[in-house]
């Protein structure tokens, strides 16, 4: 309900944000890197306006400023705004110097306050490059983010930026250190199929793993591949295994996936070198697209028991991070088109996109896609409050 002012013009009603889940509360502890005497705008205001703007469709700093100016009266009901809305240069400059580790820490505190992962849930870990974030003038390569996705909660649990001249092998352990995933099943592509990562998953995090096994593991991959090729040829004669098949189809495409998992692997020379390695798995994917058939075999190492249905679930839900996170960030948030490059701005705004995506995905009253949810949040402040209340 609007309230009338002295001149008879209606003013926006105060916005109530749930105190336990308020994004404002969790980012109020973010250290301010600016010189206090030279600041005109509250860091808390800058962060909250940016998150609201990102939810509502803003994909760059000019859009963030324009959103703030358009919604000034509404924002004023719960933010300080002592000097109005900051300029787009101010937004960009502040986010370029915010410590990304501290910003991520606030993100993690917020996530832990609104959800918790349950035992047995699939947690997919995967990387994504922000393609336009490279800077030729400073010879800086594009930023690569590694994220963790909780399949059942359908949220991003956390993300880290890979260090310059590094890769996912060093970033994945750093990301795992941030997460509370005891009892979960961690899935990672072949890049993360490393003994130290496996040890961290099992020993440090108390979790299981299903990891893709490819040629980067040399003879280990070759041994597993040869085993399954011979097993299929002999129709798994004298081999104890579990089997599960799934069939999906739409728009002229039919995909059949046959999942095999084997626990009798004492013969495997590498078994003792990989912590808690219990089973090896194979997926035969057969795609029929308008009569044109292709077949792909993929191999995995696992710490789960000989359960083909669970194995199939882990393999399938790993792609949730690609389809429900990375694809959505590119299509609905235009992440691959972003040209943010200054300082830490690209990495920090990537975290903002994940915040916005988590909020939008968990607002379930509006049955439309993420892009249209962003539009609705921009048009209807009441709906935006529902989104922010996650």
Note the main attributes of this structure:
single chain; 390 residues; 11 strands; disordered N terminus
* Gyration radius from CA atoms, angstroms: 24 Å
Mean pLDDT, rounded to whole units?
A: 88
Number of strands: 11
**What is the topology, as strand order, of the major beta sheet?**
5-4-3-6-7-11-10-9-8
What's the shape?
Answer: elongated
State the low-pLDDT regions, or none. 1-6
Q: What is the tally of helical segments?
A: 14
Largest sheet: 9 strands, mixed
Q: Could you give the order of the helices and strands?
A: EEHHHHHHEEEHEHEHEEEEHHHHH
Which structural class do the helices and strands define?
alpha+beta
Distance between the termini: 22 Å
Percentage of residues in helical conformation: 25-40%
Q: Strand content of the residues, in percent?
A: 15-25%
Explain this structure to me?
The structure is a single chain. By secondary structure, the chain is of the alpha+beta class. 39% of the residues lie in helices and 20% in strands. The chain contains 14 helices and 11 strands. Strand 8 and strand 9 form a beta hairpin. The N terminus is likely disordered.
Summarize the topology:
Layout: E1 3-4, E2 10-11, H1 23-27, H2 43-55, H3 61-70, H4 72-75, H5 88-97, H6 100-114, E3 122-130, E4 143-150, E5 155-161, H7 168-178, E6 185-188, H8 195-204, E7 208-213, H9 219-233, E8 242-250, E9 253-262, E10 279-289, E11 292-302, H10 308-318, H11 320-331, H12 345-362, H13 370-379, H14 381-388
Parallel strand pairs: 3-6, 6-7
Antiparallel strand pairs: 1-2, 3-4, 4-5, 7-11, 8-9, 9-10, 10-11
Helix pairs in contact: 2-3, 2-12, 3-5, 5-12, 6-12, 7-8, 13-14
């Amino acid at each position: 309900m609007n309230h009338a002012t002295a001149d008879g013009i209606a003013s926006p009603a105060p916005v109530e944000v749930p105190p336990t889940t308020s994004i404002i509360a969790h980012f109020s502890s973010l250290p301010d890197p600016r010189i206090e005497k030279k600041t005109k705008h509250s860091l808390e205001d800058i962060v909250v306006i940016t998150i609201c703007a990102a939810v509502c469709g803003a994909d760059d700093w000019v859009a963030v400023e324009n959103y703030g100016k358009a919604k000034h009266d509404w924002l004023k009901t719960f933010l300080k705004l002592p000097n109005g809305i900051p300029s787009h240069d101010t937004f960009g400059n502040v986010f370029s110097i915010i410590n990304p580790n501290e910003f991520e820490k606030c993100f993690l505190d917020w996530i832990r306050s609104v959800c918790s992962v349950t035992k047995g849930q699939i947690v997919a870990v995967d990387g994504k490059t922000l393609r336009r974030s490279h800077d030729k003038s400073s010879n800086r390569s594009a930023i690569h983010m590694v994220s963790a996705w909780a399949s059942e909660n359908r949220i991003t649990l956390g993300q880290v930026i890979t260090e310059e001249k590094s890769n996912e092998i060093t970033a994945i352990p750093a990301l795992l250190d941030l997460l509370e995933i005891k009892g979960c099943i961690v899935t990672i592509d072949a890049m993360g199929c490393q003994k130290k990562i496996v040890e961290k998953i099992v020993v440090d995090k108390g979790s299981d793993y299903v990891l893709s096994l490819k040629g980067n593991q040399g003879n280990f991959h070759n041994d597993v591949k040869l085993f399954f090729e011979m097993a299929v040829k002999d129709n798994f004669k004298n081999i104890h295994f579990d089997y599960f098949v799934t069939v999906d189809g739409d728009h002229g495409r039919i995909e059949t996936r046959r999942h095999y998992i084997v626990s009798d692997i004492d013969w495997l020379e590498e078994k003792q070198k990989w912590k808690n390695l219990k089973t090896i798995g194979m997926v035969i994917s057969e795609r029929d697209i308008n009569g044109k058939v292709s077949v792909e075999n993929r191999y995995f190492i696992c710490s789960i028991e000989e359960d083909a249905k669970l194995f199939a679930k882990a393999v399938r839900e790993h792609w949730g991070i690609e389809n429900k996170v990375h694809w959505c960030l590119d299509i609905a948030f235009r992440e691959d088109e972003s040209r943010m490059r200054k300082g830490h701005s690209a990495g920090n705004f990537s975290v903002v996109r994940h915040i916005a995506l988590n909020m939008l995905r968990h607002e379930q009253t509006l049955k439309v896609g993420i892009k249209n949810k962003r539009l609705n949040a921009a048009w209807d402040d009441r709906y935006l409050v529902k989104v922010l209340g996650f």
